[in-house]
């Protein structure tokens, strides 16, 4: 990694810990490679992201429903998906682009795709095994799911039978996935436990081109709407495709400080998944069009993204060093706290009382944080680093005039606003 990129990553990692976004997993035991915990600010921001994604999928689009599938499934699922097969062959993984190659297919020690260094060939499987059952010798071997999408395929028939959906329709899901990554690293970018958001869009084979292009465009617009600098996003076109895919694109963050740029893959999965599950389960997974009586296996366009990668790219994109402060210029929709409330001085009961009433009044509607530590300058500094869009100060004038100072994060402009107009003011500003 170039020195300035490494510096940026180091600064983000440090800010994340300092402000309570991300902590190393099992921190008091010295950490545990590839696992992280979200702190108080991190979980707020991650929930904001997931809620925005969920609402966008299910409310702003017709014909999309959600599920919340189990993390552990019948192990046959992973045979059908092809994940178990990789046990058989020794594979080498590229340390740079993380693609894996059968040891028999490659010559030399350099990646055929990006010329990165390859690991020694190993028999490995990215699936994380678990044992189910309590009696030794009778335990069943299963896996933590390696990708969140499989439970959508497993429930496709259940969903058709229990809803009024007709093709084309989508099923979305957010949830944890687990991978025994050979080379975890780069903070949240390559973890062993991470979260994905997936849409599987089921359509008629003849309509694949149309829907693939539709979702590619839709997803990019969604991402662009949330980044501080949308121009930093682009597409990466895959040249080497899975045998069932006609095309594949990644939505990438071009200014990534490391070699990992992918946030989300837009995949042409065709009828591969449903056909495999039909074959392995022995169940009929075809679809019959009630009007034309045509029977076929639906084809699938998948949009599969990483919540944690999006989270980290957003922080990187929002991170701004100014003369006397560091600011996270996060879109207010995803900022962990929308508003911070301060009494000008922490030792004046009248100010505290007034500030508490403002704080409690706003708290019912917005995500608000109270801060009475140190002086006002330090509080602004801390809230800027946390990305809080508005800071409200209650001073001696507030006691007389029933108004407050509202300070906006990016411009640092301050305005006096009447307390009774605060909610409306904030609502308007936060939805701009
Ligand atoms: P990559 O090639 O970068 O490893 P992938 O192509 O294996 O990713 P998919 O299987 O398509 O990834 O998973 C969908 C999304 O899940 C990716 O776009 C990425 O955002 C996220 N993701 C995948 N692996 C990890 C990981 N180890 N840690 C964090 N996020 C991940």
Explain this structure:
The model has no long low-confidence stretch (mean pLDDT 94). By secondary structure, the chain is of the alpha+beta class. The strands form 7 sheets. The protein has a 7-stranded mixed beta sheet. Helices cover 31% and strands 26% of the residues. The longest helix has 19 residues, at 40-58. The chain folds into 2 domains: 39-77 and 144-316, Bira Bifunctional Protein, Domain 2 (BirA Bifunctional Protein, domain 2, 2-Layer Sandwich); 337-430, Anticodon-binding domain (Rossmann fold, 3-Layer(aba) Sandwich), CATH 3.40.50. It has helices spanning 3-19, 40-58, 76-80, 150-154, 156-162, 208-224, 272-281, 307-318, 349-363, 376-386, 396-401, 422-430; strands at residues 22-24, 36-38, 64-66, 90-93, 100-102, 122-123, 128-132, 140-144, 169-178, 193-203, 233-237, 248-253, 262-270, 287-288, 295-296, 299-306, 319-321, 326-328, 339-343, 368-370, 390-394, 403-408, 414-418. The structure holds adenosine-5'-triphosphate.
